[in-house]
Records
---
Amino acid sequence: MSAMTKKAKNFKKSKGGLYLSIGSTAFGAISVAKQAKLARQESDTLRLVDAAVSAAAIVTGLAILYRELKRLGDDDVLLG
């Protein structure tokens, strides 16, 4: 394993990496909100269901990332 690959894997488990993942996942919520709005305007039930499932996936992903962040910060007094 090269040094760059090892560094990238360690970044994924760092607080900075988790914050970046949370931000990019939350940014995906904007796309889902637009999709849901368009589906409601067009009365497209299938697209509305797709948006709801995507929103559930985003919420679940954020919850998992938040849990990982809390695990990293167990020794940190400010994170709780």
---
Amino acid sequence: MTDSDAGFDPTSLRPSLFVDGQWQGSGDGGTRDIVDPSDGSTVAVVDEATPDDALRAVAAARSAFDDGPWRSVTVGERSDLLNRIADLLQRDKAKLAHIETLDTGKTFGESEIDIDDVTSVFRFYADLAVVQADRLIDVDRPEILSRVVHEPIGVCVMIAPWNYPLLQISWKIAPALAAGCTMVLKPSEVTPLSTIAFTKLVEEAGVPEGVVNLLQGSGAVLGDALTRNRDVDFISFTGGLATGRHILAAAAENVTKVAVELGGKNPHIVFADAVADEQSFADSVDNVLTGVFLHSGQVCSAGTRLIIEESVADRFVAAVAERAKTIVMGPGMDPASETGPLVSQAQREKIEGFVAGGIHEGATLVVGGTKPDDPALEKGSYFLPTIFDHCNRSMNIVQEETFGPILTVERFDTEAEALLLGNDTNYGLAAGVRTSDAARGERMVRKLRHGTVWLNDFGVYTAAAEWGGFKQSGNGRELGPSGMSEYQEAKHIWHNTSPTAAGWFGTR
């Protein structure tokens, strides 16, 4: 597919800042080149915001929330808006998927699935917006009408990561619009293209001026203007642990509410009984492989830690390694490609550092560990699927989120040991368990300290179920009803329909 086949014109993305209903350039004329990680070419140039641009965007969102028509829009009208956005997403699915692939390097098939997932998120919150009701409270006094209502929290800053640019920011935008909030969006400066294209769809759908504002730029430049701003009521951030800590500290100055999803180091636990016959063995190998190497491992919930029962470990690891060798790498727009490059050369250098560290720490390199030697891939940010065996929790590659195609292998003998290893992490985003023993499976999923646990599956999710992590994977939840609650304040209204004197103090 060519750019013209998908209807994508890179020049259509400028001006690329959207503030108070107007597309505009940067206040200082600054721009950034956006690079296709499959070959290092520049695919687009976007405007890059200044701190003053960020202040104007927050002010526009504040005015739209406090004084604009958005507050008088009914839940039914908000629901209709979300459904219109969903319709436009499907209308432009091919173009958006193409843009996402150029931006991130993932395969076009993956990007198409992402657009369908984004659509499902908007459909879910369109439905939820109209069914959420006030809660009546019986206080056993007939003259009192007591109820709890949910009101929009206000102005929201939404900061999204580079691995799933449109999907991750949709988890924020859809519930915020359903709740009646206004917002400032900041995609990763590395992968902003699909969010720019999406914001044009939001404009087309008829969102009022100032409700949705869009900035591009680095967090180092824009961070303080967005996170230390008294006009901001809520910050939603998805990204790395260090940045999350910085945002939490900055927001504390104004006691701004913050929800953060900070990644994970996710165990995929395989018991011997789950691979007792050839079909279950092959299926488990396939799911472990997919769980870690999809999108070249650049997934916060990737199953990067294989925790395997000792009695089947040698055979199982060998089978996963053989499958890993056959993964077809290439540009995302090539239908033959099964996985694409890392998002940037910088990310590849980071992965190379983890591999060198793993070897130094004594882990056994089974497969991969280098960039491919195919000359056709030389200009891209590719890195081979990599497996380290005989790992333990003292190793940095087991402790740290590598965010790349690295699988570490740890071994166990007992259920108790498997559980100990599965919980022995500073993170707690997701985990998987494979066993044919239903009772054992239930014991494991209840005791694992992770926000999502898959039993005999891995990596799937639904917009209707909450997503988020324990421990240093963050706080708050996205998706599901709780995902909308993050964008609301609960207010208790006590209405005395027959007021009388309190009579507490005597009269003179």
---
Amino acid sequence: MADRQEIVSRVTAALEGKPSPVAIHNARKVDARGEQSGYWIVSDANGVIVAAGTGERSFAEACTEAGIDSESEAVLDAAGGILAPGYVDIHAHGAWEKSFDDGPDGIDVARAGHAVHGTTRQVLSLITNPLDVICRNIRMVRDKMASGRPDILGCHLEGPFLALARKGAHDPNCLKDPVPQIVDQILEASGADSQHGKRGCIRQITIAPELPHGLSAISQFAAAGVVPAVGHCDADYETAKAGFDAGAGIMTHMFNAMNGLHHRKPGPIPAAVEDPRVTIELINDGFHVQNPMVKLGFGFAPHRIAFVTDAMAATDCPDGAYKLGALDVNVVDGHARLVSNGAIAGSTLLLEGAVSRAVNELGISPVAAVEAATLTPAKAFGFDKPNEVTGAPIGLLAPGYAADFNLIDPAGWKVEQVWCAGRKIK
């Protein structure tokens, strides 16, 4: 672990440091707008893209205008490698033996584990816990964001407002009905202040809409600027549709921890698929959702599928014994299950792997695969436009967007170099 500790220190220092100008040329650009060979991109000292295009002459001119010496270390020849926007994971719990619930140091470790594989921005998912612990962990994320790191987008609460029948690996003793007083307590911990228009650090919260106060809680969170997500539910079609109409804008990991498709009991999935306002999470590891259903999902909702990892502490680690909150987990062949009942306990997936297998195993186009890991998750929170969290928009390789870059090996789609807001991570 000595090497990893060194990596964590280096990545953390980079993310807490200042951006530098970056100029990359001779790349194969892949983003949601398409593919382009001979592509170049230039960003400034604020970590924002100032110019992009094709042709070496115009690249040299752009470097000069940005004050970048063409012979400096800021200039990189991609040698035909793939240049994609940094990946955005809106649902992950940890990596490298740490969870995002494990305090500031745990966040540093788990973020480094994802960052070196190209996940430049992340919503930190917090597991179901006693309410006081959840609120403590929310405040921890809030404090971490206040330190100025650009990579932490906020937190996602996966619980405690989940259906008991669809709880998955969440502690049943901590599940609750989202009565208004508890919602207020959670929003207060996030720093939300409706009187002054302050949104707080919670980006997303998964809610089973069929709970007694499920729909009212969705409305309450949405009014506070949080994007509620329908998931871990046993809702029928009508109730799920009511949840989206009440303000839910995401479906938490479609197909997992919910009633499935049935021709006489449609359930929540068609309600999400038919609603253009809804971003649909999908875990593309071949285990949570098998390949035919991943491809079906892309056909269902083009441009609305967001790859997520639901990654837990064992991500990028050997098989063995781990924890998910207070619950014991055993990982065998990379698959995490609760020791108590064998329930799937999150994944050990990285977005790097989700994109790679989409292209190389499923035959999904590189543009669609990259879109599912970049622009689509950014859109779920309005981060594809200028906003108070990321400043410059994220999700595309274009002037005005943040300097979030992944330089990728075209053969295996392995991420080789990474920048977040102009900060070199790998």
